[in-house]
Amino acid sequence: PRSTLFPYTTLFRSAEGKPAAAGLFKGKWSMVYLAPADCAEACRQRVYHSRQIRTALDRDARRLQRVYIAPDAAALATAKAAFSTEHPDLLLLADTGAPGSRAADFFKEAPADALLMVDPLGNWFMVFPPKSDQVADFKGVLKDLKKLLKQSQVD
Q1: What is the CA radius of gyration of the chain?
Q2: Degrees (nearest 5) of the Cα angle 131, 137, 140?
Q3: Is-contact 8 101, C-beta < 8 A?
Q4: How far apart are the C-alpha atoms of 155 and 152, rounded to whole Å?
Q5: Whole-number Å distance between alpha carbons of 120 and 6
Q6: Fewer CB atoms < 10 Å away: N or C end of the chain?
């Protein structure tokens, strides 16, 4: 993985068209999902699993934010309609960057439907590719995140 994601955050927009906060990835651990244009079943399952993982972190859940990055405003509007009720903590953003400066370009080394970890300094450092055994996938990600948050001094 490459280092900082900060140059890209200025290109993210909310469903209302507002720019993402400059410190979007500052001070919190972030679980990022780079969504496809059409969020079909595999996409919905990854969003669901990210919520279950965050919930299972118990008291450490507040230290982790979930970020959904749609490829454009239309895909974001669809995602907002699909997820805003069941996933109120999910930060929904659209990537409005030009080709070559989009989140997909930054995360191009990651497999499709992977959950991507960004540290509190905005550095991408970990990839959780999807596995066919969803229970093992959930347990593996949860185990890694619990270790990470236990060792981290960032509250």
Answers
A1: 14
A2: 135
A3: yes
A4: 8
A5: 11
A6: C
3-state secondary structure of 127: strand
Residues 6+ apart with CB under 8 A from 102: 8, 11, 71, 95
Between CA 90 and CA 61 the distance in angstroms is 12
Is 80 exceeded by the pLDDT of residue 4? no
Handedness of CA 15, 76, 10, 117 (dihedral sign): positive
What is the phi/psi pair of residue 101, to 5°?
A: -135, 40
Element (H, E) at 33: strand 29-34
* Mean pLDDT rounded to a whole number for the chain: 89
Residues 31, 13, 123, 105: what is their CA dihedral angle, to the nearest 10 degrees? 100
Q: Residues 49-100: pLDDT tens digits?
A: 999 999 999 999 999 999 999 999 999 999 999 999 999 999 999 998 888 8
